[in-house]
Amino acid sequence: EIAPLNQLGDEQGCRLVDGNVATPDGFAAAYHTYIANGWNAMLGDPNYDGQDLPYSMAIPVHEMLNSANLSWRLTTMLTESTVLALTKHASQALKDIYLAKVISGEWTGTMNLTEPHAGTDLSLLSTKAEPNDDGSYAITGNKIFITAGDQDWTNNIVHLVLARLPNAPAGVKGISLFLVPKFMVNADGSLGAKNSVSVGSIEHKMGIKGSPTCVMNYDDAIGYLVGEENAGLACMFTMMNDARFQVGLQGLGIAEASYQGALTYAVERLQSRAPQGIQAPEQKADPIVFQPDVRRMLLTQRALTEGSRALSMLYAKFMDIEKYTDGEEQAHADHVIAYLTPVCKAFFTDMATEVSNYGIQVYGGHGYIRE
């Protein structure tokens, strides 16, 4: 259901209607099928109805989703990262309210770091968190570039937001992490009043148009501390590092899609005779897959893609070791993951650009137009 929505999603894009995001036709229905079949819960804690499957099983699925429809995949990717952050850092009380819902996909999750004046340099972050008498916090500030900050797939969204407490230390050592729901949750688990969270606008992008990239406004929104005060960046890095690898995996998925498309076209496209002799005597010309330069480009695509996939599975192996072991073995895996995370993100995405360029070259003029 997901791949056929890719072109439609790019053509329709997302819209902001009366303050709410409307995603392309079919996106929400595909998501409901996805979570109904348990795909969102693959990596989740079994104590909260997760399947606790190894990363070595989940990552190939994620790659295929990226190949099928990256715009659609982005929302589920950030939800998985939210699950990881809550599992490792949230209080038991927050887990009991939110974790099972996010693991199942009944609710989605977002990551709110960037502000108009604070991008890579989070020391400039200015979103405020004022303590309330009931133990919650009032969150006020603006965030930009928030993937799936709003959508029409679920009835609630769990925002993880970086903000500063009063008298917090300057710089990154004064940042805390807060869970801010779109709708408040009543004691019986039902949804209550809408929180003071709104979408200011959605970005108009060159690509991934089916994914809503939002400007989020927090106006004394109710939030709950995740982890310790002033330790929010360390908590958020759990989510960020998972997202960084997943961004790399997006590159791998795009590269695979480019290779498959180029290979199919090269086998079908007839042009001239092969220099090594006639290959398709029943045809008026031979497929271009027999042209040496085309073969070179296809083999380069395949080598880069399969090599990156092998590295992604090595990464998955160490993620599983870190997840299922303890002691020195777990610590070693954690160090390997820390080393490989930026390598995978940078190489896979750079590789995808190169592979996609080869894909366009194989298509020739048809790679630059649409039918």
Commentary on this structure:
With 371 residues, the chain is α+β, with helices and mostly antiparallel strands. The chain has 2 domains: 5-230, Beta Barrel (Butyryl-CoA Dehydrogenase, subunit A, domain 2); 236-368, Butyryl-CoA Dehydrogenase, subunit A, domain 3. It is 46% helix and 18% strand. Strands 3, 4, 5, 6, 7, 10 and 11 form a 7-stranded mixed β-sheet that branches. Strands 1-2 form a two-stranded antiparallel ribbon. Strand 8 and strand 9 (191-194) form a beta hairpin. Helix 3 (55-68) crosses helix 6 (232-268), helix 3 crosses helix 7 (292-324) and helix 7 packs antiparallel against helix 8. It is elongated and about 85 Å long. 39% of the residues are buried.
Task: List strands and helices in order, with pairings.
Elements (H helix, E strand, L loop, with lengths): L4 H8 L2 E3 L2 E3 L4 H10 L18 H14 L1 H20 L2 H13 L3 E5 L15 E4 L5 E11 L9 E7 L12 E6 L1 E3 L5 E4 L2 E6 L10 E14 L5 H37 L23 H33 L2 H37 L8
Helix pairs in contact: 3-4, 3-6, 3-7, 4-5, 4-6, 6-7, 6-8, 7-8
First-last Cα distance: 22 Å
Number of helices: 8
Q: Please outline the major beta sheet.
A: 7 strands, mixed
Domains counted in the coordinates: how many? 2
H and E string: HEEHHHHEEEEEEEEEHHH
- Enter the CATH topology name of the largest domain: Butyryl-CoA Dehydrogenase, subunit A, domain 2
Q: Total number of β-strand segments?
A: 11
CATH class of the largest domain: Mainly Beta
Percent of residues in helices: 40-55%
Q: Whole-number average pLDDT?
A: 96
Beta-strand content estimate: 15-25%
Q: Measured on Cα atoms, how large is the radius of gyration?
A: 23 Å
Known CATH architecture of the largest domain:
Beta Barrel
Unreliable stretches (pLDDT < 50, length at least 5) are none
Using the alpha-carbon principal axes, give the shape: elongated
